[in-house]
Q: What sequence folds into this?
């Protein structure tokens, strides 16, 4: 990632909601490749990108990307509190990759036998039950759904090799292609991608899924 592609997003929103909005859940240590690609592609297709997070009572928080080159090159200033939005406000919801989603599943207080009560997990429960709303994850971001196995039980997915055990232990069926996980899987309203290297394909499919209904399928890797 060169200095020319560094981005700082202010006020959480990119583009105009001509066709609707896509909520992108984000926290510290997000994937900057996906971040930069989302900010360019989705607005070009008529969708506003709105970054949302749990702000812990603050009017805004600034999050930085993974330091891929040893320097945190991309930042986003988030002003949209996840507790204040509803899934029906959006055409799609995406959990950004890297380690941000692990941070979003944090709970201040826990009780034995109680489902995860992190605001982002509560939001995802509502989102997964919202008709015609598409949910997307890439790479490590299925970690957030692993926080509540009911979100993944019997779902067909793909993910980064690092978190296969987490995802399978949460009850999902990880789909393989040869000696690797599949590049991209569509299972109903859930669209999962393997890693940032296929983010262009992921975005194309995500937009197509928002604009039409398609059956469960595996999407073959592009040559």
A:
């Amino acid at each position: 990632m060169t200095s020319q592609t560094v981005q700082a997003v202010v006020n959480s929103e990119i583009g105009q909601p001509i066709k609707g909005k896509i909520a992108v859940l984000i926290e510290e240590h997000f994937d900057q490749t996906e971040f930069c690609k989302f900010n360019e592609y989705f607005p070009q297709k008529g969708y506003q990108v709105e970054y949302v997070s749990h702000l812990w009572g603050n009017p805004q928080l600034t999050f930085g990307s993974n330091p891929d080159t040893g320097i945190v090159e991309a930042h986003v200033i988030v002003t949209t509190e996840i507790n204040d939005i509803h899934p029906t406000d959006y055409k799609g919801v995406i959990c950004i990759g890297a380690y941000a989603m692990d941070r979003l599943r944090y709970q201040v207080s826990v009780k034995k036998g109680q489902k995860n009560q992190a605001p982002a997990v509560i939001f995802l429960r509502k989102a997964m039950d919202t008709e015609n709303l598409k949910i997307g994850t890439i790479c490590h971001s299925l970690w957030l759904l692993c926080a509540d196995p009911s979100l993944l039980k019997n779902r067909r997915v793909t993910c980064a090799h690092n978190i296969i055990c987490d995802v399978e232990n949460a009850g999902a069926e990880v789909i393989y292609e040869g000696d690797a996980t599949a590049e991209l899987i569509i299972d109903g309203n859930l669209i999962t991608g393997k890693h940032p290297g296929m983010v262009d394909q992921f975005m194309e499919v995500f937009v197509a899924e928002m604009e039409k209904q398609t059956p469960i399928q595996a999407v073959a890797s592009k040559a």
User: Anything to note?
Assistant: The helical segments are 32-44, 100-104, 119-128, 143-146, 164-169, 199-211. The first strand starts at residue 8 and ends at 9.
